[in-house]
Design brief:
15% strand, 46% helix, binds NADP nicotinamide-adenine-dinucleotide phosphate, 7-stranded parallel sheet, alpha/beta, 10 helices, Rossmann fold
Length: 263
Amino acid sequence: MRFRNQVVWITGASSGIGEALAYAFAREGAHLILTARRRERLEAVQHACTGAGKRLLLPFDVTDLEYHPTAVGAAIEHFGQVDILVNNAGVSQRSLVLETDLSVDRRIMEVNYFSVIALTKTVLPYMIERGGGQIAVVSSLLGKFSTPRQSAYCASKHALHGYFDSLRSEVYAHGIRITLICPGFVRTEVSMHALRGDGQEHGQLDERIAKGMPAEVCARHIVNALHKRKEEVYIARSEKIALYLKRFAPGWLSALMRRVNLR
Ligand SMILES: NC(=O)c1ccc[n+]([C@@H]2O[C@H](COP(=O)([O-])OP(=O)(O)OC[C@H]3O[C@@H](n4cnc5c(N)ncnc54)[C@H](OP(=O)(O)O)[C@@H]3O)[C@@H](O)[C@H]2O)c1
């Protein structure tokens, strides 16, 4: 019960890591605000949550930036505060640069980057007024290095690090802590909904995602990291080695990436 009576807002709570986070925080006694586009899936998640905390569903498309003030207003009206905002909603990519329409690059940046900074900016004044809070951002190991066929996805996740590392120092004195979360392969629907170059969904469960860490395990690590108010956390298995290669032997990593199957 490490988060008893804390108000935790999770975006992308209708499946995968966000859904698992909802269950994990519910077990910790938190009150939950759950956001995603699919209302029925959110309702199912809400019903499956065990724990004494209250729940509020706020279904909306996070790229509808004009709606953010209304959503935040509804959250504040309902709970009076947001203690932890978990920016988790995201979309991945499966396409080479030259086959990716610019509208798809933009869409990925809208979901993974602009909606995240917009919602954060809308929630922050309330946290500052209360004298504290936590912002979690679900980035990726691909926020630290890049793979082929995910150029816009990698760019969007790298951008989050630049932005939130800067914000971290700006809001520290207000008692606000920022945690950047970098998962490796996690078994979710992420590859199913990943965008192809023409904007269609990839629609396939990729092998490495299928063999990835269970979302529940990832969620447990995230909850622990937030409890410890960590600045950045890597949640991965053997793929974590690429982080060290990027840092200490970047040429080796580039050579490995050139061998990745491009189809
Ligand atoms: N799985 C992995 O291997 C992995 C690795 C590193 C990082 N991540 C990151 O983890 C986060 C969660 O992904 P996941 O793996 O759990 O995939 P997922 O199962 O596909 O979940 C994605 C979530 O984001 C929501 N979402 C997507 N677009 C949205 C939009 N425009 N507005 C509102 N909600 C939206 C989806 O809900 P609706 O469709 O209902 O809107 C869903 O709840 C993402 O940021 C992803 O980049 C995943």
